[in-house]
Amino acid sequence: TTYTHHFDTATFKGDVTLNTGLFINGQWVDPVEGGTIDVIDPTTGKVITSVAGATSGDVDRAVEAAEKASKTTWGLKMPGGQRGRLISKLADLIEKYQDELSALEALNVGKTFNDAKGLDLNGVIGTLRYFAGWADKIHGKTIETTDKKMAYTRHEPFGVVGCIVPWNFPLMMAAWKLGPALATGNAVVLKPSEITPLTALRLADLVNEAGFPPGVLNILPGYGPKAGQAIAEHPKIRKVAFTGSTLTGRKILKAASETNLKVVTLELGGKSPTIIFDDADLDQTLKWAAGGIFTNMGQSCVAASRIFVQESIYQNFLEKFVALAQNLTDHTGSPFDPKTRHGPQVSQTQFDRVMGFINSGKQDGAKVLIGGERHGQEGYFVKPTVFTDVNPKMSIMQDEIFGPVCSVVKFKTEEGEFIRISWFSAMINRFLIEVLELANDVAYGLGANVFTENASRAIRVSNALEAGSVWRFSFYKINCAQATEFCVPFGGYKQSGIGRDLGQYALDMYTQVKGVHINI
Ligand code: NAD
User: Fold this and answer.
1) Residues in CB range of 359: below 8 A, 6 or more apart
2) Are 492 and 311 in contact (CB under 8 A)?
């Protein structure tokens, strides 16, 4: 079955047709149990269409196809350069259809068409091209141990890899997995989020158009506890690459450990800090701080929901920051209106979750400076929300909200005073715990942002932060966009994950190394 969506908007006009079945072995098939998933438009709460929902029987079929491909046509049966050309071809086709794909992403996620194109699709195309280039550059070493003995190493694909991705950047998160998985010669079973399956379904047709052998990439929309769990448990899947919440990450790790002990990499949640020292360029910093939390309506794993501002600029920052939040509120609306800068949360569940956090902040005694309520009567819109007067133990300061909600906190110093006067009473020590301790005082460690014109302080603070990525020292004066540097590894410290996406480092996540020993 197919579904055609007719777009007649200011930013995109045209019909987009996609198959709504399961993509297994290069073909569209119906799910064995006949399950379906309703896909919702978050700006209205109405059903767009329904698509097939996979269950464990479908995962079995997909794994069988993938295993066959990995042994007969793909993996070490196809030269790396040829694999790379297919991945490049796929990137070219995605570029060709980027407006269609951006429109689907905007429709299904609620992000603006312009963001979908500028951030998501750009990221997808760039990631695939980056990894396409690696496909013929994966090789081992020779190691001579004595003049009578040598060994060589091989970086071999796992065979079948399961990729489970979330709804916030649906196609981009898929590309972060597919790029390195395919470049290293693995065959893939990809499960998009049940909330946002549309772009992955459109991608499937492009996989065939690019000319991949059947079974190399299988795409199965399905619910997490059904299709996702079946992937995590499957005995013939040797590696699972997951992006999503920490709670689901734990379930996948457990399932893997209790079945075939598959290799698991996890990109999980975050509670990222933005730290602004009083020497930073305030106008630049304001824009970055607002982008850090409000981009994608706060539905970003690196959303910087804790903003620490040095005391002498705190009041000034706050006034201007609230004005930026107001500006976003004034530009809330349809993702297809070119003036829109703020859209809805992705689903009713996420809307309820974010409103729950806003209410918990209010109940805990934090002050709402702006926002703190829904926007309009239809859809899942939440106003950009800024809290002050928080304490570090409040839920809004500890838990991932995944919405347009942040707290602004005043600090005095980088650190040091805590140590220097530590012989004072315990109360004074607590009072003087300063920004580094505060920034690191969460279970997560995904991203962090530091703004200062002082280079040594920028480096000192970046090194002391417990985070997998640190961005945007303003002294560089460059446009340092988050997470789109394809050559730089991305991933979490602490409970933000295991392993890395992107960069050369990602190749190691999709290969296993063999040492072959030879007596000469
Ligand atoms: P989620 O964990 O609910 O779902 C993610 C995926 O896991 C979906 O495809 C879902 O169907 C699947 N899933 C759910 N239960 C499963 C199970 N028992 N077994 C196997 N698969 C299962 O997360 P979400 O709500 O889709 O996404 C939001 C989360 O993703 C946030 O916590 C966010 O921080 C995180 N995220 C992290 C990164 C990163 O790179 N670190 C990037 C984007 C999003």
Assistant:
1) none
2) no
Q: How many CB atoms lie within 10 A of CB 360?
A: 15
- What's the pTM? 0.95
Query: What is the chain's length?
Result: 520
| Positive/negative CA dihedral, 131, 134, 136, 138 | negative
Tell me what percent of the residues of the chain surpass a pLDDT of 70: 94
Identify the H or E element spanning 323.
helix 311-330
> Does the interface predicted TM-score (ipTM) exceed 0.90?
yes
Mean pLDDT of the chain: 93
The predicted pLDDT at position 428 comes to 43
Give pLDDT tens digits for 160-194.
999 999 999 999 999 999 999 999 999 999 999 99
- Whether 495 lines ligand 1, by a CB cut-off of 6 Å, is no
Q: Which single residue is written with the structure tokens 């730290």? A: 275
Pocket test for ligand 1, best of 127, 177, 248, 353 (most atoms within 8 A of CB): 248
**SS3 at position 142:** strand
pLDDT of residue 481: 41
Q: Where are the alpha helices (DSSP H) in 184-243?
A: 198-210, 229-233
CA of 421 to the centre of ligand 1 (A): 44
- E strands, 315-421, are 367-370, 385-388, 405-411
- Name the E strands within 193-325: 217-219, 239-243, 263-267, 273-276, 306-310
Query: Is residue 167 lining ligand 1, measured as CB closer than 6 Å?
Result: yes
Distance of CA 30 to the CA centre of its chain: 29
Residues recognised as catalytic? 267
